[in-house]
Amino acid sequence: SMIQVIKCNAFEYRNNYVANITGYGSILNLRKLDQMWYCSVRSNTVTQLSGTGIISAEGDSINTLVIENNNFTSNVFLNNGIDISVVLNNGKITYFNNTFSDNILKLTNETLYHNYNLLSISAKLATGSQNTLFDSSVFSNNSVISTPGATQYGYSYGFLSFQIANSSIAFHNVTFRDNSLTDNNLKALFFIGDTVSISACNFTNNTKNSTEGFIFLYSSNINITDSYFGNLNDTHGKGAIDIATPAYLKYLCKVVITNNTFEKITAFTGSVLTASGILDMVFDSNKIVDSFPSSGTIVMTGSTCKPFCNFTNVSFNTTGETGYSGAFLFS
Asked: Contact at 8 Å (CB) between 208 and 214?
């Protein structure tokens, strides 16, 4: 690593230009950041890395971690590009106004038992009701490529992974476009949190070839509003949104999906939504345009929506498709 920080109260990395670095480790390696009250990575450019990660951070009882106004472009990673694994102490993680583009994550047989992503945030909360904010950022023209068999055990997720215990995740005003994920064992966006909110985002021209949906969620409260999903292509698996409920969340998950547009989404099943074990569902004022699966635009299984399931003001505009099996499939 170029810079290693161990045990300090506050740290800022600002206004740096880093280019043409080859090797393992990370540019910024933050370790054992116990009792840190503030850490900031701000207004940096990192480009042309080959094998090296950008940020690796871990520690207990961190109060504030901010990554903002950075430009991360044209890098090749062999493990996590950005890897944050911390315990927050009544604190918050903020990722704001960053550009993450034209980067490649290469997965090989050496990564079989590892969980690698272009960006990974994992946090445990010392106290509940705190949050992680991912806001006003661009994630474009990135790709995850793998050698045959490199992800056969499903350990690697893919583009973005958020695993936040006892907390909320806000994913707001993010442009996510022209990204490519070709391995069928990978997930594109993976969310675990008490509450997950996705709002005012644009997901356009992304390609995947995985069994799970483009956005894969475990959460007891899910809100997806005012967003655009367009030109998502995956004939292998599920479509835009995939809500799974493990045993501890079954019939506890509340979902609100309102005022979104789903356009030209191709999937094997559930081109707009696949969900199971939901407590209740509000699907209101959404527009669905030319989004075709082989089976079901919206697929809900496993005795979902026990109190109620409210589908209102949904606009369908689908033309010119044959062999199409049902807009709504419930079982």
From this structure: yes
Sort 255 into a burial class: Cβ within 10 Å, 0-12 / 13-18 / 19+.
buried
What pLDDT is attached to residue 95? 96
pLDDT digits over 220-240, tens only?
A: 899 999 999 999 877 677 888
Closest CA to 62 of 85, 41, 35, 84: 35
DSSP of 75-116: -EESS-SEEEEEEEEEEEEEEES-EEES-EEEE-GGGTT---
pLDDT at 88: 79
Give the bridge partners for 189, in sequence order: 160, 215
User: What is the model's pLDDT at position 176?
Assistant: 96
CA distance 51 to 228: 33
- Give the global pTM: 0.90
Residue linked to tokens 């496993």: 302
Q: Considering only CA atoms, which of 207, 84, 237, 77 is closest in space to residue 141?
A: 207
pLDDT of amino acid 233: 79
Closest CA to 104 of 121, 116, 122: 116
Length of the chain: 331
Cβ-based neighbour number of residue 35 at 10 Å: 13
**Distance, CA of 62 to CA of 10 (rounded, Å):** 10
Query: Rounded CA gap, 62 and 127, in Å?
Result: 12
Predicted confidence at residue 124, as pLDDT, reads 79
The closest of 75, 71, 77, 65 to 30, measured between CA atoms, is 65
Q: For residue 171, give Cα distances in angstroms to 30, 233, 268, 293.
A: 25, 22, 26, 26
